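Contributing new records

If you add data, match the layout below exactly. Sequence lines come first and carry their own label; structure lines follow with theirs. Keep one chain per record. Anything else will be rejected by the validation script.
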Amino acid sequence: MSVNPVPFARRAAATATKLSPDRRRHRRVPLTLLGRFMRANKLEYPCKLNDISVGGASLMSPVTLSPKERVIAYFDHIGGIEGTVARLFEGGFAIQLVATAHKREKLAAQLTWLINRHELPSIEERRHDRIATPPRSMPLKLDDKLTIDCRIVDFSLSGAAIETNARPQLGTEVLLGKLRARVVRYHDTGLGLQFLDVQQPEALRRYFG
C-alpha cells in the first residue's frame, strides 16, 4: 500500500512548526536598558537589553558566549535576571530565564510598569499640589523583612517625596507608614512615591502633620 507523500510532508512540517523554539510561549516586549552581565567565570561585561519577556531576553554583548552557558544580568528598574544561553546572533545572544513563579510574577509587574510609565504624571504635571511638612520620620516598609526609617519632604493627595538612601526598583510597591504606595521616581536625596489608594485631604494632613 503506497502513502501519498504530500499530506505526510505537510503534517511533518506542521509538527516541526509547533516544536520550533521560535514559537515563544511568552510575548517579548522591546525594551532598551543598559546593564552588565556576569559569566560563570565571574568576569563581568557591559550589555544592552533588546527585548524581554518573563521567559527570556535578548541582549547585545561585546563578547561571544557559548550555547547553554549560564549568565546573570543586571539592569536598572529590573534588577537581576538569570538564565542560560539559548541562541546566538551577530552582536549578542538570547537567554532562557531561570526563575521561580514568584520571580516571574514580579518581573511581569515590572515590565508592565516600565511599558506604561510614560502615562505617569511628570514632576511638572502632578495632579495635586504638594504640601511641605515639618521634618518627620516615618517607617518605610520595603518588603516583608525590611523596614527602614525615612523623612517626609512633602506630600499631596496622590503621593509623597521622601528622603532615604534606599533605592528600590521603580515600580516597587512599598508601605509608607500605613499608606500603600509605588516608587515612581528618584531624586537627589530620596524617592518619589505615588499612593495606590485615594486619600482624604483632612485625614492626610493629620497623618503627616
